[in-house]
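ok so I'm stuck.
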Amino acid sequence: MAVPTEAAKEKPPLHAYPEAKVGTQFFSHHGIYSERYNGVCALTGSIVLMASGRYVMFVDVVSGKIMSTPGPENGGVGAVAVHPSRRFYVVCEKLPENPLIRVYTWPSRREVGQFVGGATRGFSACCFSADGTMMATVGMYPDYSLAVWNWKTRGMILRNKCYGSDVYTVLFSSFDSGVLVTGGAGHIKFWSMAKTFTGQKLQGVLGKFGRLEISNVPGFAVLSDGKVLSGSESGLILLWEGDLVRCCFVREIKKTAVDGAAALAVQTYDYWPCHEGTINVVELLGDGRIVLTAGEDGYMRYWLASELETAEGEGAPPLYEPKCLFEVLVDPHAHIRALTLCRDMDEWVVLDSTGVLWRVPFIPPNVILGSSPGRMKEPAQAALRFNGGGITSAAISPIDHTVVTGGEDGTIRLVDYVTPCEVYKLMMPASTTVVALHFFRTDKTGMKFIVCCENGTVGLLQRGNKAFALLGQWRPHTEGLTAMAVDREERRLCTISTNGTAFFFDIKRDISLLEPIGFCRLPLKDVRCVAWDDATSCSLVGCECGKVLAIRAPKMEEMDHTVSFEFNCIYALVGIRQKKKVEKQQVKAATAGRVEGLQEEEEEEEEEEELGPWPVRLICPLPSGSFAVGSGAAELLYQYNLKRRYDNLTE
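replied:
not stuck anymore, here's the structure
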C-alpha cells in the first residue's frame, strides 16, 4: 500500500461560518464577451459555442436563447474549440494552478476526458488539425507555452516556449498538419514539427516585420505552398515567406511621377490599405482557392488565393494591388472580431466587438469566382445585441421585469431579462464608460433614473415606450467620476471623483431637475465609493488607502453661487477596524492536536501575513442604521455602526 503523502498545511480561517443555504439559482444570461479573438465556434444547427468569464455559452442565433455551463469555481474559461467532427468540444481553463483541458460530447454536453498539463495558469488559444487527430494549445502568462496533443490518447506530443507576451491565435496548416502558426501581441511565429537526431522537436521562427511597423497579429492562414497570409493593425494583408514579409497587399497604390536620380532609388508609395483598421480574421475557403479577410471596418472581403501567393510587390515595403472579388459590409458601425461558418444554415455568424452577433449569408466559392466584383445585396441580420465590452453598472426597474445596464461602450440598454432580449438602447452624447445607475423609488411612474459616466457627466433620464428620454445633463467633474449616492428620501445626490472632489445636488421633489449645490476638495484623493449617512447628513467616502471619511453635506442656503460653487470641506475620520485579530489562546486551541513545533510555524506565518490596510470598495447602508463595509481582501465585509469619528483628521 502506498504511503499517504502529508497533506499541505492549511491556515485556519479567520472565523468559522455556518454553511450558507442559498435560496436562489441561476436564471439566464444576457451578454457575451464580444472582444475575444476567435471568440465564436460553430457547433450544429444554429448553435455557436462561446466563452464568457467562467461560463461556457451555447448561443442559438435563430431563437436568441443562451444556454450555459459553469467553468471552474476559482477561475474562468481561457479558450474553447470545436472538433472538426462537431461531435466534441473542448474547454480550456484558467486557474491559479493546474488548469485542465476538458473534453465534452455534443449535443449531450457530457464530460468524457481531460488533457493534463500544458500551462501553469491557463490557456489563451486552442485549435485542431484539419483531420482532427491533433490539438494545439497556447498557455497564458507566465509560461506562454505551445503544446501539441494527440487527440486519441489525450497525451502531449511536443511542447515549446511560444513567446514572451500574449498569444491570441494558434493554427494548423490545412495542407500539412506538421506546420503551425501562432500570433498575438506584436508578433507572429512559424512552427514546424521536425525530426532531428534526438527525436521529434517543435521548432519556431519569429517573423521579422522589416520596414513595417511591428503589429499585433490575431488572424492568419497558411497557403498551399507553405507561405502565410496575415492581417495587421494597419489594414495591410501581409504575405510571409520564411520569416520575412515578401509582399504587402493594398487596395490602391498612389504613385507620383519621379524624375532624375530619385527614379533609380527604391520608391516609397502612399497607399489605401485593404481594410481601415486592424484585420482580425484571415480564412481560406473553397479548398484554399479564396481568401476571406475581415476587420475593424466592418467589411468582409474576398480575394483570389493564387494571385496573392504569386504576387511580386514594388517599392519599400513591396506593395501589390490584388483584385477584390467580393465584399460584404456587415454594418457601418461593426468591428469584426471573429467569425464562424454555420454549415447547417449556410450562414456566417460574425462576432462584433460592439456587442452584436450578426448573421451573414454564406456565398459559395464558385459563385464568388464566377461573378464580377460586387457587394452583398442581402443585408446582414443582427441575431443578438448586447453591451460592447464590460457591463459596468445595472439598475433593476421597480415596476417590471427589466433592467437598465451601462457599459464600457458608453451605451445604456433596457433589457427584458425574462425573454431575454434588448428592448432599446441609448448612446450617451459623450461616449464614455457608464459607472453608476439608480432608479427612483419615490417616482410614481417608476420610469426615471440617474446615470453617471466616467467623464464626469451626470444625466437624468426617463424610460419611454420606444426610447430613453434625456431630461437633463450636468458635468460636476472634469473626469474620473467613480461613484454616486442618493439619500433615503431621494432628495440629495453626491458624486465623487478620483481627482479628489465631491459634488452635491438637490433633487426636485417631482424628480424633474437636479439643482447643483456645490463641490469640495477632499483631504484624500484616492476615493472609491460613497454612501449617505442620513442620521448625520453626511456622505461616507471610502478610500483606496483603507480609510473612511464623513463629509458634511452643504445646504443650498449656505452657498453663494455668485462667488463660487466651491465650499470648505468639513470632514471627520471614521473609526473602523478592518480585521479582528485572532487571540493567541484561540490559535493554540485550534492547533491542540498537531505535531510539536507547528504552533511556532503558524505564529511566524501570522506575523508575515499582510495586515492591511485594505482598500475600502463598498459602503452600504443597512435598514438598522448601521453599514456594511467591504474591503479589498478575503473575509472583509463587516457590519459597522460608523459612529466613532475624529474631526479634521485623516490619520
